Amino acid sequence: MSHMIELDEFSEEQLSSTSSYGEHDGLLVPYSDARAYETPACFRVVWERLKHEVKQVVFPSAVIVPKRIASLLYATTLVFFGVFISTITIAFFRWKATDPFDAFFAHFWDEGSSSAYKPAKYPIEFFGSVLPIPCHSHNDYWRRTPLFAALGSGCISIEADIFYRNNDIFVGHVESALHADRTLESMYINRLVDLLDGMNPPRWKATDPKGVFYNAPKQSLTLVIDFKTAGKETWSTLHEQLQPLRERGWLTHWNGTHRVERPLTIVASGAADFDLVAPHGSVRDIFFDAPLDELDHPFDDGTRFRYNVSNSHLASVNFHSAIGPVFRGKVTDEQLLLMRKHIQSAKQRGLVSRYWGTPRWPRGRRDEIWALLVQENIGLLNVDDLRGARKGSWGSWS
């Protein structure tokens, strides 16, 4: 009996929580209580620092608050300007990016106009599904394939800026951009002759020539010649270079009593002299681009107008100078009334209205202005971005 009592006492003593560890008890640390483990010093420092930061956020001191606000404003400003600059950069490079549709025709364009060149395939093989839309390809020559990209996009009007130099007419926006290979004949006239030759084989009736659009053969293409140099030399040289188109009967003309529509309508714009374009009572095949915001003239009496179908075809003006700036894409009531007056005045005279210099960016604002002009029955929608014209619903208006 005494031995059993001693054994029980021994067991209780070994299991007591107050008993001390022996020299080998260190092996039992993973299974011991919390007293056997201490938090590393580095963790305690991080924990204390974290608690301090949390307290500063929840209960900031009077000294910390201004610093935090300044830091927040600085970071916000950096983010804002970063986003702004990135947006501008992306928009710029996207606008300057090569249009794949334009690049597609590069091999046709690079071959040039020659006897081996077969542009007759152009409207039939590659553009059999193109539907013409009342858009004007502004500064058409800026593209890699002037004329081709515009026609492939359905534009019924194209534009070439010209300078008279060395008894020839060169195409370019500024004089420093002129090049010996970029003449009006090589870039436009010869190519149009080739295209229309392909659309009008010899067996076709000369009294009913086809235009450049396979699906709309009666649609006339407008070629706007923007004179950068005035004078009789520019005028007489242009008249001479149009002879291959004239002798084939492809130029819209005024025959002295009425206007005869043909596949190509030539319009003189820019520094062109109205007195040279429209001498009284003459037969002509070059028409004037009248000032859309200054169509009224003392000569007008309600039935007769200074600018009319006998001497003019377009009526154009810079959008900003005639209508004014547009904020947030919204045209004011006064601007809308002025726009309607311009468009109605052009229609009254039988002219095609056009605003150039419409907002191009942001694209949302541009599209809103385009949509408004279409709604108000503008004659031609001036476009610099052919991709935007192709993606829109502009082909749905007649």
Automatic annotation (TrEMBL):
One GO term (biological process): lipid metabolic process
Keywords, alphabetical: Membrane, Transmembrane, Transmembrane helix
Domain of life, per lineage: Eukaryota
Transmembrane regions: 72-95
Single Gene Ontology MF annotation: phosphoric diester hydrolase activity
InterPro entries to which the protein is assigned, alphabetical: HAT_RTT109-like, PLC-like_Pdiesterase_TIM-brl
Entry's family note: Belongs to the AIM6 family.
Protein name: Altered inheritance of mitochondria protein 6
